[in-house]
TrEMBL record:
GO molecular function, one term: demethylase activity
Alphabetized InterPro entries for the sequence: AlkB-like, AlkB-like_sf, ALKBH4, Oxoglu/Fe-dep_dioxygenase_dom
The keyword Oxidoreductase belongs to this UniProt entry's keyword annotation: yes
Lineage top rank: taxon: Bacteria
Pfam families: 2OG-FeII_Oxy_2
Signal peptide region: none
Domain Fe2OG dioxygenase: 93-184
Keywords recorded for this protein, A-Z: Dioxygenase, Oxidoreductase
Name of the protein: Alpha-ketoglutarate-dependent dioxygenase AlkB
GO process terms (BP): demethylation
Amino acid sequence: MADLFGEPERIPGLKLADEFISRVDETALLERLAEVATSPFQFQQYTGKRQVKTYGWRYDFTDASFAEVEPIPDWLLPLRDRAAAFAGLEPGEIVHCLINRYDPGAGIGWHRDRPFFEQVVGVSLGSAAVLALRQRTADGFRRVKVPLEPRSAYLLSGEVRHEWEHGIAEHRALRWSITFRSLSAKGRRRAGR
Ligand SMILES: O=C(O)CCC(=O)C(=O)O
Ligand SMILES: [Fe+2]
């Protein structure tokens, strides 16, 4: 279990697992990921350095639509099932998967995941990064940094998912993350489920 830098206490809703997948599984997944047709992340007129591919349900940051897209492919289902178990969910509750490809120099700014989603499980592959977390306080922010080793996983739920923001500074080496998300009540209403 990774320790939080300089923060002995745990943040409610944050769960970490090192060696969530084996090296053999990581190698096989990286081979598959190299074949995935990712495209630059679009936020309104802004094009990010991060490359993405979405499966299942997709929130469009350009027109704020939420729509069903191609299903999670078979090769990701064993990892989806493992992510569901890690989050205490049934496999079928995870209906969305986002692949993020971060080339050197790419990162992800401070944000909270869209309210259409509830639980968030992130799996890291390829190289290490630091997940930065911050929670607004009366006079600033409470900040925590979480090292993300390759093959590790994190769960964002409850307080850390809803009351904290997260981001990742620019990557030094190619890193992939695979994010699995369940739908929130709002997302289920929008999805008609
Ligand atoms: O790369 C990561 O682990 C973070 C991804 C993330 O925060 C997101 O896609 O919302
Ligand atoms: Fe996120």
